[in-house]
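Researcher: Structure for this, please.
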Amino acid sequence: MKPIFLLNLTIALFFAFLFNGCKKQEIQSEEFMIGGDFSILKKMEDSGGVYKYEGQPVDALELFAENGYNYGRVRLFHIPNMEGPVCNSLAYTIDLSKKIKGAGMKLLLNYHYSDTWADPAHQIKPKAWDGLPFDVLTDSVYEYSKAVIEAMDKAGVLPDMVQVGNEITPGFIWPDGKIWKDDGTEDWKSFCTLLKAGIKGVEDAYGDRDVPIMIHIDRGGDQAATEKFFKKMDQYGIEFDLVGLSYYPWWHGTFDDLEENLAWLSENYEQDIIIVETAYYANGYYPEPDEWVFDIQPFPPTEQGQYDFLVTLDSIVTQYPKVKGIFYWKPDGLMIPESNVWFIGRSLFDEEGNALKGITAFK
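Model: Predicted structure, token format:
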């Protein structure tokens, strides 16, 4: 080949690599991932909750497995106060992970890097890390991420997939890792430095064993925001294997909005995609439109509507080969006042613990 052709080919390959993002490994899975975020299940059972199918008590995880669920997702807080739903300490997570693995499911670990909820409106730095210089904070993120995996490995519940941060569209570990600062500027460098530290800590704990790394944002139906975020991941050299998206229609748009995003990601990125959070109401409640809530209701918020939503979502995402799974958020919620965990009507069980039709949607 002529030198000029080689030069042009090298340049073309470089930009193709840059645009498609850094990819460490192919995610090969013959089985479509059907998962549930079972982070609250142990708390429900510890508080006396009983799960039922056709009126009879059942093992909840076995029931999910019988209906096609092959993955369990568990969140992890840094040092939670253990009150109400803020109960996902490392010890709790290990115990719950043993139940998930015991039901024959694989395990997705979801680091929150906070003592409490981490989401687009809350990414508060753990109390133990307050006041640390940035370089010490970065090292703490690395050491913590590594130590968690080592502890889970020792306990016999090594995660099969790891999510480094939860809905991190605005960054995480605020204020240090906050992207949009209060003065209107953007700081992607600090965020990405902390994100790399978390990823490296996880990977170093696995050593020569492969682990798929997921980057999770909340913009399932927002193609423009998704494009901006992942182009920044390319720019700062973030290596990951899976794009995780949250998709709740009242927050994230219509099915058409979701498809636009899935089509764009499928065309422009090598990474596989998972709808790692979704849910739908079954108890008659639905959020009223406001500044942050869209006037979108694809189905009535009933037991049948919940089922129809999941069947429709499944039929849509399976048209995109790079979409490898759907995870339902909090399918295990029950109404148990003494647990101090709220029942918000998006569970796949009713308030008395009876399984709803939606639990069969993926079967």
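Researcher: Any notable elements?
Model: The chain has a mean pLDDT of 93. Residues 30-360 form a domain with the TIM Barrel fold (CATH 3.20.20.80).
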